[in-house]
Design a protein that fits this description.
2 domains, 4-stranded mixed β-sheet, 9% strand
């Protein structure tokens, strides 16, 4: 059984829970408060970062790395495209989503004056709406780790009072992501409450 150190509000942890749910892997989740890192986690991961997993006595952390590990270790269903070029495109997409969308989200959470960050956020979402006018998922018609990386931030738009109703293509994409059984199984009680 995989041990997952996770936080129920953390979008990076959410990504990993989605991967685990897609693979239908049994997990033992240890809920960690971000300001109270237990010694057992620090003994496994000197950075104390979340998510962290232990699988067969091997420790992995950093969501992008451990999600790729999980996809390779447990290959069904595959969460990467088949061709080397498409896999490289997916990795570039994950990197850009982390650098652009995740940065915007975390900036929005920490700044008091949100006007400029919200403007940048809306510009980014508008570009996504255009992107999804041409394809079903981030890398063509294939659901991948890029979509899994995108999903937790998109889920958090409503609680941040970001209205997506002007972007029908983006809303269609969000519905495809959120309707997946794995996405629903991966939601914590706190994440479910974000939409109530």
């Amino acid at each position: 059984m995989i041990k997952l150190f996770s936080n129920s509000y953390c979008p990076n942890c959410h990504r990993t829970r989605i991967v685990l749910a897609e693979k239908e892997l049994p997990i033992d989740t240890v809920e960690v408060e971000e300001d109270q890192i237990p010694q057992v986690l620090l003994d496994l991961n000197p950075y104390g970062t979340l998510p962290t997993i232990v699988d067969r006595d091997k420790v992995f952390f950093e969501a992008t790395i451990l999600n790729e590990y999980l996809d390779e270790r447990y290959p069904h269903p595959p969460l990467k495209p088949g061709s080397p070029a498409d896999r490289a495109q997916m990795r570039l997409a994950v990197m850009r989503i982390e650098q652009e969308l995740y940065s915007l989200y975390f900036n929005l959470k920490k700044v008091r004056r949100k006007t400029e960050v919200l403007r940048k956020f809306r510009t980014y979402l508008e570009s996504l709406d255009h992107h999804f006018s041409m394809q079903e998922y981030f890398i063509g018609e294939c659901y991948t780790l890029a979509d899994i990386t995108m999903a937790p931030i998109l889920w958090r738009l409503t609680p941040e009072r970001i209205d997506t109703s002007n972007w029908k293509n983006l809303e269609g994409y969000m519905k495809r992501l959120f309707d997946r059984p794995s996405f629903q199984r991966a939601l914590t009680e706190n994440e479910q409450m974000m939409h109530h």
